[in-house]
Design goal:
7 helices, alpha/beta, binds iron/sulfur cluster, 352 residues, disordered N terminus, OB fold (Dihydrolipoamide Acetyltransferase, E2P), 15 strands, five-stranded mixed barrel, TIM Barrel, six-stranded mixed beta sheet
Length: 352
């Protein structure tokens, strides 16, 4: 990734067709609270979501955030400086005044960050850090990378395996280069040979992988996933506004989903209906929100928006996504916006 001389951002089309989208580099000049696609998300618990990269090498047909090479909604991707990210984590954790879990996840796949091992190392060195966990679909995972993450101090890997059948796995991942058998081998290695725990987290897409879910439960139990935490985290497919929706698939009702999980719990003798307490997650002091919904203020445009018709802006040491705009971002210019959403510490503004 090349940085521009003005030091603010770089653009990259990449050598691989998997990453042909503009990548915007988030360095020390940017606040790391306020955006859904990068930085830190505080939902008022003792767990902080840590988002180092929004890139993804897959294009899952059910993806709730329309990630990957086949994305139709994204205008740019973000990649965060890991020193900066770890420092913001430290400061927010200290503000909370208790031990805090670092959950490395993404609106993409965190393993796309070239310094992901370094990020885990840095988070591990922070006194306030308790558990470090990470989510991935595993395309970029290898036994040697798993070794490095283990040595760096990763406590748990949440690995999404949506089908064990190789051709169905490719179809669900929207990628014919996705080799589930390779991911399976790494999963076995992690469960049998590393300190870190493994949680298998399939997305159940009704009508597409119904028969795969019991096979995945058996697989997780067989390889010894769940040494300290539950071995499985089955996720329900939901249709999201900007997400991909597989043709002919209707999301299941929650009652139906839990009924089926209860049946499998009894059949396999394993906990499948999970609560935050199963992972030691509880309410904690929340970082204050500096904006009020409906408030108008001046923000400074600093870069491209994540989605089309958005710009990236900053104000009051927070990031604000300015939505409903057209054209290239007028970087450096101040514009007036109305704050239209502050939900979960993600800030959206509309130009006035
Ligand atoms: S579901 Fe995850 S791995 Fe699949 S495209 Fe979306 S972000 Fe990438």
């Amino acid at each position: 990734m090349k940085r521009r001389k003005n030091g603010t951002y770089s653009t990259k089309t990449g050598g691989s067709s998997k990453f042909r989208r503009r990548v915007f580099y988030i360095d020390h000049a940017f606040p790391l609270l306020g955006h859904i696609a990068f930085g830190i998300i505080d939902r008022g618990t003792n767990l902080l979501q840590v988002r180092p990269s929004s890139l993804c090498p897959l294009s899952c047909i059910f993806c709730s955030v329309d990630a990957g090479p086949l994305s139709r909604t994204r205008a740019a991707e973000y990649m965060v400086n890991i020193e900066h990210l770890a420092e913001w984590f430290r400061q927010i954790a200290e503000y909370k005044g208790e031990k805090v879990q670092a959950h490395i996840d993404a609106a993409g796949d965190p393993l796309t960050h070239p310094k992901i091992v370094g990020l885990v190392e840095k988070l591990r060195k922070i006194k306030a850090t308790s558990v470090i966990s990470m989510e991935t679909h595993g395309l970029l995972l290898s036994t040697s990378l798993a070794d490095k993450l283990d040595d760096a101090g990763l406590d748990r890997l949440n690995l999404s395996i949506d089908a064990l059948d190789p051709s169905l796995a490719k179809r669900l991942a929207g990628a014919n280069y996705y080799n589930i058998m390779r991911v399976v081998e790494v999963a076995k290695y992690i469960a049998s040979s590393l300190k870190m725990d493994l949680l298998i987290a399939p997305v159940w897409v009704p009508g597409l992988n119904d028969e795969e879910i019991p096979r995945i439960i058996e697989f997780a139990l067989e390889i010894g996933a769940g040494k300290h935490w539950p071995p499985l985290g089955i996720q329900k497919y939901e249709a999201h506004k900007y997400g991909r929706k597989p043709e002919g698939v209707k999301p299941m009702r929650w009652s139906e989903f839990y009924r089926k999980l209860e049946i499998w719990e009894q059949e396999y003798g394993v906990k499948l209906i999970l609560k935050p307490e199963d992972f030691g997650i509880r309410k904690a002091k929340r970082v204050p929100c500096p904006f009020k919904k409906g408030e108008t203020l001046r923000v400074r445009v600093v870069g491209p928006g994540w989605l089309k018709n958005e710009w990236l802006a900053v104000a009051r040491n927070r990031v604000v996504s300015v939505v409903g705009v057209e054209g290239p971002p007028p970087v450096g210019r101040g514009i007036r916006v109305e704050i239209i959403s502050v939900k979960d510490g993600i800030y959206l503004g509309a130009p006035l």
